[in-house]
From TrEMBL:
Keyword Membrane annotated: yes
Gene Ontology biological process terms, A to Z: transmembrane transport
Name of protein: Sodium/calcium exchanger membrane region domain-containing protein
Pfam families: Na_Ca_ex
Domain Sodium/calcium exchanger membrane region: 4-87
Transmembrane segments: 12-34, 46-63, 70-89
Amino acid sequence: MEPVRKGRESIAIGNIIGSLIFFSTGNIGLLALTRGFSTDPSVLSFYWPFLFISTALIAVLLYRGKIKRLEAAGLGTLYTVYWVLSYLVV
C-alpha cells in the first residue's frame, strides 16, 4: 500500500505480479523437489479457468493504464464468486 500512497502505482503493480509469480513457481518447484505431488482433476476444470480469466481481465485493465473503482469492485466480486464456488463445488 505504501507505493500507492506515494503515487508509485507501477511499483505496487510490479510487487504484486512478482509476488504472485514467485509464490506460484517457488511453491510448486519446492514441493516437487521435496516430495513430488499429483493433482486432482478439479484443478484443471475449476481453478485454472478462474486463474486464466482473472489474469486476462486484469491484464486488459492494466493495459489501459488505470483501474477504476467500479472495475475494482468487479474484481472483488469475481473473487467472492470464486471463493464461494470453490467451497460449494470442489
